[in-house]
Amino acid sequence: xxxxxxxxxxxxxxxxxxxxxxxxxxxxxxxxxxxxxxxxxxxxxxxxxxxxxxxxxxxxxxxxxxxxxxxxxxxxxxxxxxxxxxxxxxxxxxxxxxxxxxxxxx
Length: 106
Description:
about 110 residues, 4-stranded antiparallel sheet, single chain, alpha+beta, 4 helices
């Protein structure tokens, strides 16, 4: 692969969970979630919503070229903490966390 092509590549990793009907309902009633979707800050643990293969996920996007397994686990805990803030009634430990990689050409 030429260096010009490599410089035009960007890797992003998304760590999050599938938004099922239960999560969707709790997020819909969460004032904290609604506020943070409108007023984003660098402080706190704000999550993003993405669509992947026709399914919606909520989680955290990481813009690192390399990522260790320990860092993935740290981001998993980040997602669980943020979800528990948005939806304190949910048992966030039961949710399956997915890791989705995305490769972009610039």
